[in-house]
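Sequence only, no structure available. Ideas?
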Amino acid sequence: MDALPRRARSHAAALAVALLVAALAPGAGKAHAFPDHSEPRVGHTVDGTPPQVRIWFDGEIEPLFSTMRVENAQKAQVDRRDARVDPADTTVLEVSLPSLPAGPYMVFWSVVARDGHRTEGSFPFEIR
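Reply:
I predicted one. Tokens follow.
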């Protein structure tokens, strides 16, 4: 009866070692593109409408499969619907903004890294 728990512990230990080796393998952290910083910055209040929202990623992203939109508090899309990867810097995703009223806004983004892995997220900012 004691063999089953011992076997289960052995499998769990082997799995933990395999996960640790995979996490420490060269390039393991480069499987996805993650945001490095943005303008406007995450959660910040800005004076007046910024001309665009830009997100810098820690790796190159695929233009055909990367999107971004900006919504107001009523969940209406308010950007100019021209989201694009900057051709001069393929780590930057951007979208233009028209003049917007004061209030809270939410940025939603989804990117595909050059290796095919998708990441997505969102962040708020506010216009004063």
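The mean pLDDT is 85.
Hope that gets you unstuck.
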